Amino acid sequence: MGESITEGTIMRWAVNVGDTVREDDILFEVSTAKVNAEIPSPVAGKVLELRFAENETVSVGVVVVVIETESDDNTAQPADTAVDTKPSPRIPPEAETSSAASDDRAGLSGKKERSDRFYSPLVRNIARAENITDAELDTVRGTGFGGRVSKTDVLQYLEQRKKASPQFSSEAKAAQAHAGSDSRSPKEAGGGASDDTTVEMDRVRRIIADHMVMSKSVAAHVTTFVDADVTKLVRWRERTKDEFFRREGVKLTYMPVIVEACAKALIDFPQVNASVDGHNIILKKRINIGVAVALDDGNLIVPVIHDADKMNVNGLAVAVDTLAAKARSNKLAPDDIQGGTFTITNFGTFRNIFGTPIIHQPQSAILGAGYVEKRPAVVETPEGDMIAVRHKMYLSLSYDHRNIDGALGGAFLRKVADYLENYA
């Protein structure tokens, strides 16, 4: 489902205990990182156990369904693993769930609580052995992919704790106290007024929040701006948009042209089409450009146009329109949001002139496109300078200073603007 996916929510079971399934029959529908996907059975056999209920969230690597295959028919089931094969409710008895699933749903203190942060079984075992609570574990800085806490991170934390500096000890004790003895109401704990309303983040918003915070903590963000004169582009669009709609069946917006300009600039500056892994820089061979799409529920998703450098404006326009429609109807496939190497976000959709976007990890840069508006500008002519009404657009580039310096970031952004300014 993608290297950055750490958990998924079972939205719907397509089978019951006792059902017979064939290979590739749909078992269940899972929702991960804003994409719903139907999961097929890898084998043929009889469904013995459904270990999770619908709407439960499960970490990657946890068994969710047990299927008896033909090769298992002649193998006797041990008494302690026998399962009633009659159709049963989708929630199995607690005694029948695996230890891995139980560990995933239960907090380290033994309470049926779970942190929104993902921890591997190895990390949880170390934390349990060292009496580290969930709240205390949440304070450990993760250096793994996506900010994940590794074995090394936990061991370093324990080493720091042994040194027992006053500041560290007080922070750890505060975390433990908060986990076990904070009896204040949510409003009291958060300092909210009596007439405030507390709304829990939905699953998608939690994913976005965690991903954005992780990106700011991992990447050294720098943002630079240019003011692009896109008068030629605006006039070209006005001349061709009606014919384009009749020919392609989609509206001609500025976005496909911006995608094309970015693809060309990424060819000119391949160092921008990269990601950072520790002290290594990974230069990407393919140019896969993601375009941020605002959803009706207030959330955001970034479908990806793969091999954007191999498409013309016509193909890019159809791709942008198709992906946006699939995103808003929740019909994106997992492949539609994976493999991005660069991202574009369009502030102009909301009549905003510019912004400072956050890098979409593990990429190295993201372009922000502002609103196209008429502004007076000084224009050089053979007869001398003059003030004229021009169509202008601010472009912003947030980039990772770990592998992109100011000269490279500025040159790349200037090249994107040059392609847009000379489009005709």
Q: How would you portray this structure in words?
A:
The chain has 424 residues and is an alpha+beta fold. Helices cover 32% and strands 23% of the residues. Strands 8, 11, 14, 15, 16, 17 and 18 form a seven-stranded mixed beta sheet that branches. Strands 4-3-1-6 form a four-stranded antiparallel beta sheet. A three-stranded antiparallel beta sheet has the order 2-5-7, with no helix packed on it. The longest helix is centred in the middle third of the chain and has 18 residues, at 231-248.
Give the DSSP E fraction (strand runs of 2 or more residues).
Answer: 15-25%
- What distance separates the N and C termini? 41 Å
Tally of individual helices: 11
Main beta-sheet annotation? 7 strands, mixed
Keywords:
424 residues, alpha+beta, seven-stranded mixed beta sheet, four-stranded antiparallel beta sheet, 11 helices, 32% helix, 23% strand, globular
Question: How is this fold's topology laid out?
Answer:
Blueprint: E1 7-13, E2 20-21, E3 26-32, E4 35-40, E5 45-50, E6 57-59, E7 65-68, H1 99-105, H2 121-129, H3 134-137, H4 151-163, H5 166-181, H6 186-190, H7 203-218, E8 221-229, H8 231-248, H9 255-268, E9 274-277, E10 280-283, E11 289-291, E12 293-294, E13 300-301, E14 304-305, H10 313-328, E15 342-346, E16 365-369, E17 373-381, E18 384-400, H11 406-421
Parallel strand pairs: 11-15, 15-16
Antiparallel strand pairs: 1-3, 1-6, 2-5, 3-4, 5-7, 8-18, 9-10, 11-14, 12-13, 16-18, 17-18
Task: Write a brief structural summary.
With 424 residues, the chain is an alpha+beta fold. The protein contains eleven helices and 18 strands.
